From TrEMBL:
GO terms for MF: nucleotide binding; oxidoreductase activity
Domain of life: Bacteria
Domain GFO/IDH/MocA-like oxidoreductase span(s) in chain numbering: 130-247
Alphabetically ordered keywords of this record: NAD, Oxidoreductase
Keyword Oxidoreductase: yes
Spans traversing the lipid bilayer: none
Gene3D superfamilies found in the cross-reference section: Dihydrodipicolinate Reductase, domain 2, NAD(P)-binding Rossmann-like Domain
PANTHER family on file: BCDNA.GH03377
Protein name per the record: Oxidoreductase
Coiled-coil segments: none
Pfam families reported for this sequence: GFO_IDH_MocA, GFO_IDH_MocA_C3
Amino acid sequence: MRLGIVGAGAVASLHAQGAAVLEGLELTAVCDLREDAAAAVAGPWGAAVFTDYHAMLAAGVVDAVVINTPHSLHKDMVLAAAAHGVHVLVEKPMATTLTDCLLMEEACARANVVMVVGLIQHFMAEKLALQGALAAGKLGRVLMVHDYRSTDYRPGARPAWFFDKAVSGGGAFINIGAHCLDRSLWVGGAPAVQINATTLHRFGAPVETDGCMELTLANGVEVRITIVSDTPQHIDEMLIVCELGTVTVDPRKGTFMEIDGASTQLHATTDHDIQDAFTAQLADFSAAVGGAAPRVSGDHAKHVVELVLTAYESAERGAPVRLDAVCAVSGVRG
């Protein structure tokens, strides 16, 4: 499968490295508005360089693409790929509206191409270690999840498009919060039926820089997500409270389980965990193109977008919002 990458920033090099080591995949093109950025990712693998994704698709040099661009651009790029019969791995969030999510799905279905949403948490070794312990029944039922993550939303600390709501869809919630919602729903094991959110706008930023989300899942699990900008030390930790014990998960340290006063380390972080996750995600996408079910369903990806949008609604209203007729961990409202 000939793979292209649209958007040479952030994690593009991780996708490129993944393609290089997976049998049956070849990176053949990289596109970015900045030719030098595209060339930097394409160069080590001898891939073609484009500055217009329409030209790349029309050139017939790719069978599949990774879309790694600002959030609001995802819909048009997916529709263009589908029109050329090209399969798509689109980075999270799937889109900035549920309408766009549905248009993307419909276009891919009509074109008989596969679309998978890149929710990398499902491939991270420390999260897989947690899921292994839960599946083995060592901890009993999940009761509560606390997800605490820091970021940096000071203007100038990241590219300008992150602060343009028309392009990004919002601030810390739709960016970092999408990761937190994804993994908390996955661990909690059910869709959300209610969300109560608050946001902060600090540093003069036009989008939210910090916030909290409290969710009740359909199975009764309570989830609290806290996102804070510009903390003294970087934070990325989940605490899962279960019937028989607790687990902490941190990609910088690993996964630790405590049962009746006895501690066990389930995973120790390595330098290659992140690259391994992106390689595994790309392998999962390739398998999906071959007919396998992807590890992350499109319905789950849509539910993450739905929850981000509902969190914004809750924060604006200053009150909890119920989600009517939610889907199975995987779904959107009717």
